[in-house]
Specification:
This protein has 221 residues and is α+β, with helices and mostly antiparallel strands. Helix content is 49%, strand content 19%. The protein contains six helices and seven strands. The chain is globular, with a radius of gyration of 21 Å.
């Protein structure tokens, strides 16, 4: 009789990890489909015709796809906010037209998808009406922990938030819109319902300024 002993622990661990990854993937796909369905429902009611719907819908789906690509590149790990912002802005203007800076911060997958869509909306608006609609305008995107806290201090306090500043200059004169556009509503909705955050818009004479505030808890890693 010959007895052979095989250590199956690595195999069991690999199977467990695979089941975890499949479960996580299913969760991400469901979330993504819900976001896309929600976008479709919102846009279809605001579109005058199929052409307008197609342009509005596909642009936002492509913004989600860019954020999704960043996440999938590293196996759905947390991604740097700087990479997310640059990826979204690169489709609208050359790098000399915008600056991106802030201390190293990484975002959870859900936060990255929601914030990526918000940045897309701001860039779209800047291209149509703001700083990116001419040859001289500039966009600056920066972020910092609220109240000047360090990253370690901020992460220890669940009440603190990450403040992301979008600032335009050198564009056409700015005026307060007579009605709230879909882009503004979408930004506010994404921040509120996806991240429990908020958006503050300032239609300053020098250029649009937007502050996006998102809680540290469950969004910033």
């Amino acid at each position: 009789a010959v007895l052979t002993f095989v250590n199956v622990t690595p195999l069991l661990m690999a199977e467990k990890q695979q089941r975890t990854l499949v479960t996580e993937l299913n969760h991400r796909v469901r979330n993504m489909l819900q976001v896309i369905i929600g976008l479709c429902n919102q846009i279809v009611h605001r579109s005058a015709d199929l052409k307008q719907f197609q342009a509005a819908f596909m642009g936002r789906v492509q913004a989600l796809a860019r954020a999704y690509e960043l996440l999938s590149r590293d196996g759905w790990k947390n991604i740097p906010i700087a990479d997310l912002v640059r990826t979204q802005l690169s489709g609208f203007a050359p790098s000399r037209r915008y600056t991106v800076h802030g201390e190293p911060v990484t975002l959870s997958a859900d936060a990255a998808l929601a914030l990526g869509l918000a940045i897309y909306e701001l860039a779209t608006n800047a291209t149509k009406y703001g700083a990116l609609s001419n040859a001289q305008g500039q966009v600056e995107v920066s972020w910092a922990f609220e109240s000047g806290a360090s990253r370690d201090q901020a992460c220890s306090d669940t009440a603190r938030k990450l403040s992301i500043e979008w600032s335009e200059r050198g564009g056409p004169p700015v005026s307060v819109p007579t009605r709230r556009g879909f882009g503004c509503e979408l930004i506010e909705r994404q921040l509120k319902y996806a991240l429990n955050g908020e958006a503050k818009l300032d239609f300053a004479d020098a250029g649009l300024k937007v502050t996006l505030l998102i809680p540290i808890k469950d969004t910033v890693m």
